[in-house]
C-alpha cells in the first residue's frame, strides 16, 4: 500500500449486545463512527470548521458476529478517493483474534457549518488526506 492506514482500538461495551448475545448491527455503525472520528481528529487536527464533514453514504458488509468477549476491536481506516468536495473512507473492523467482522465505506462531504452546504476541500485537507490514500487495487493485495 502506498498510503498510510490509521488503526484505533475500541472495547465492546456491556450494553452493546442484543438479546441474541451478539453486538447488534446498529452498534457496528457506532464503532465505525467512533473510529472515523478518531481518524479525522488525528489527520485533520480536531473539530471545528476546518475538517468539518458529514456522512453522505455508508455501505457496510457485516461479515462475522461480534460477541461480548470479541474485544478489543481494531478499526483500520484509509482514504479510497478524494474529490472536489468529498472523499471516501474505508473501514475494516477486526476482533481480538484478527477475524474481519465488517468492512464499510463512508462517503464524506466537506461541510460549511455557517451555510449548511457542501464546500470545496482545502489544499491543506487534500494534502493531509492524500497521505492516507490507498487505491482499490492496493487495498485488495
TrEMBL record:
One Pfam family in the UniProt entry: 4HBT_2
Gene3D superfamilies (UniProt xref): Hotdog Thioesterase
Top-rank taxon: Bacteria
CDD domains, per database record: 4HBT (cd00586)
Name the record gives this protein: Acyl-CoA thioesterase
Amino acid at each position: 500500500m502506498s498510503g498510510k492506514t490509521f488503526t484505533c482500538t475500541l472495547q465492546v461495551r456491556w450494553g452493546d449486545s442484543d438479546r441474541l448475545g451478539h453486538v447488534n448491527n446498529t452498534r457496528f455503525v457506532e464503532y465505525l463512527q467512533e473510529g472515523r472520528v478518531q481518524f479525522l481528529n488525528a489527520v485533520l487536527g480536531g473539530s471545528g470548521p476546518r475538517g468539518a464533514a458529514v456522512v453522505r453514504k455508508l455501505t457496510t458488509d457485516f461479515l462475522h458476529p461480534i460477541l461480548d468477549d470479541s474485544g478489543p476491536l481494531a478499526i483500520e481506516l484509509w482514504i479510497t478517493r478524494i474529490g472536489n468536495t468529498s472523499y471516501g473512507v474505508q473501514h475494516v473492523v477486526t476482533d481480538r483474534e484478527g477475524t474481519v467482522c465488517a468492512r464499510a465505506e463512508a462517503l464524506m462531504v466537506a461541510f460549511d457549518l455557517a451555510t449548511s452546504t457542501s464546500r470545496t476541500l482545502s489544499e491543506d485537507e487534500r494534502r493531509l488526506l492524500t497521505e492516507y490514500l490507498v487505491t482499490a487495487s492496493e487495498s485488495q493485495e
